Amino acid sequence: MLEIVFLGTGSGIPTPRRNHPAIYLSYDKFACLFDCGEATQLQLFKARINYMRIDHIFITHWHADHWLGLIGLLQTMNLEKRRKPLYIYGPEAERFIADILDLDYYGISFRIIAKSLPFEGNELTKVYETKDFEILSIPVVHSVPAVAYCFKEKDRINVDIKLAEKLYGLKQGPLVGRLKELGKIMFKGKLIKLEDVSKIRKGFKIVYSGDTFPCDNIVKISNNADVLIHDATFEDKKVERMHSGAINAAEIAKKANARLLILTHFSRRYLIEKELEEKAKKIFENTIAAKDFMKIIMSKHGIEINLVR
User: Fold this and answer.
1) Whole-angstrom distance, CA of residue 256 vs CA of residue 148
2) What digits encode the pLDDT tens for the residues 126-169?
3) Which of 35, 55, 65, 104 is catalytic?
4) Catalytic residue at 99?
5) Residue 288 pLDDT grade (very low, low, confident, very high; cuts 50, 70, 90)
6) Largest pairwise CA distance in the chain
7) What are the sequence ranges of the domains in the chain?
8) CATH superfamily, region 2-155+202-306
9) DSSP 64-104
């Protein structure tokens, strides 16, 4: 099961209803943040999330509304006697994290490992990988170096036991594991190929744009995404601020053949997100405007959206 919690959906200047950007994602024992705006640790407390589980933080760019919460979160982890390392990724991450760590008399008692990511070109970069999923980044267009991120669960091959038993007499047991591992086995004098008795379950794909002007790279990384979380600061794009609007996010979701578009990063001029949602829906029907503490649960049964904290 995969869980996403929106800890902040505002931009620039926060409001009483919208904190600065931060998204919590958990998958099995893995937990991370995408961006860490001011007061993220307080939002984690309110959401009853154990922040000490977080081992990876992915920063899209170094505008203060996307990273300033790192200072408080790191200090709290330190006070709670964290010992395991924390990995922080982003464009020019090594330089910025070094500067952040200098803002303290005594230093942090646990290792912080900064990993700088490419912010030019159009290539996808594999940022982190396990046997079950990978996290990718790609450069996007903003007023400072910036990247978008993709969480991609790996496809799973499930043996259809009923079919295997019907065709070959193979029942659930250690041989099924061998079949999945090797791709084929001999059983009772017959060759059983994995592709003949299995189904592929496509892995979940979630993309987070961060702040970006509409560009080909965000379409590329969002191709066939189950969930596209996209900057919708305004109604339409703003060249002078290099931001997208709700209309542009919808156009990108449509081009990328996304399944669900979630708008976030709203300007404080919009007191109600609904008007931006309605603009986007005219282009891409399956659109939702995020709210602080909105939760998304993804499982084999589908996508569940919970607006109640």
Assistant:
1) 14
2) 999 999 999 999 999 999 999 999 999 998 877 777 877 777 77
3) 65
4) no
5) very high
6) 72
7) 2-155+202-306, 157-198
8) Ribonuclease Z/Hydroxyacylglutathione hydrolase-like (3.60.15.10)
9) GGGTTHHHHHHHHHHHTT--S-EEEEETTHHHHHHHHHTS-
